[in-house]
Amino acid sequence: MAVIIDGKAAAQSIKKKLADLTAGMTSKPGIAVLQVGENPASQSYVNSKEKDSQEAGFYSEIFRLSENTTQEALIKRVEDLNARKEINGILVQLPLPKHMDSDTVLNKINVLKDVDGFTYISAGRLMSGKPAFVACTPKGIMKLIEETKEKIEGKTAVVIGRSNIVGKPMAMLLLNANATVTICHSKTKNLKEVCASADILVAAIGRAKFVTADMVKSGAIVIDVGINRVDGKLVGDVDFENVKDKCSFITPVPGGVGPMTRAMLMQNTYEAYLLQNERAK
Ligand code: NDP
To answer: Best substitution site from 172, 185, 201 to test ligand 1's pocket, by max atoms within 8 Å of Cβ?
Structure first.
């Protein structure tokens, strides 16, 4: 039976550390969250971000904009926030309504305030091995792997999924940590064999219980990013019940990657605050 990596506890401890750090500050790290429309999942994510900001002792502003906000009006909001000194981090909640182009909007965020790490500049800096704001999910996963105290260097890592927000930055972080990395996707042949070669297996697919025990190497570290709703219950991309007996470490869903993703947004905002105050000196 694997050790279950407790993302909830790890996230709580990061938020507690941030709260201790901000308690003694006269000015606070500030985050602005922009939500457009009433997508229920987005609403719940935005509410969580507001709660996390409070727990970390940050200043926060939440903008809940109507579904028919124009792209120009949203960009104007972003630009106003770029100019405001008390706002260190800006997050545009995805998905945006269909009449907007997410990339256009996201790339208006000042790179120093890009706490989600989704601008082309942040992604390019990560790719080039330069300091950058890294997308919260993969950044949080690296922390969860650190929790295992296992060395990443030299290990074989397989990431299933190649999205810009999870799969690709995840692969890049593992590569930067000197793992030998393979990225799999829907056109990958021999997926089972490739996955079964992984010392570290990250599943970011969006299909309930996709990763079965026969796809997992004995003793592997298994990270489950997936969030799927099955009969009203949250289920990951990994068949947890069967895989847990084969691997050495595994993240649960819920309580694994999700809470760490949230904590990393706070961590990035804190780092943005330090960076901007350093530059202002
Ligand atoms: P995307 O839909 O953008 O990407 C899914 C990836 O899975 C694609 O690259 C796709 O391949 C690949 N894929 C789909 N089917 C298969 C298959 N049969 N075999 C191999 N690969 C396949 O999703 P995201 O990256 O945004 O998210 C992935 C999951 O993680 C979702 O469940 C999402 O809800 C969750 N998530 C969780 C977060 C958290 O905080 N816990 C944060 C972000 C996401 P192809 O490119 O070829 O289409």
So the answer is: 185
Q: Which CATH class is domain 136-258?
A: alpha beta
Please report the pLDDT score of residue 280 as a whole number.
81
Catalytic residue among 35, 93, 267, 276: 93
The pLDDT of residue 213: 98
The distance between the two most distant Cα atoms of the chain, rounded to a whole number of Å, is 56
CATH class of 27-113: alpha beta
Catalytic residue flag (residue 49): yes
Report yes or no on whether pTM surpasses 0.70.
yes
Tell me what the mean pLDDT of segment 151-155 comes to.
98
- Our answer to whether residue 16 is catalytic in this structure is no
Tell me the mean pLDDT in the region 117-131. 97
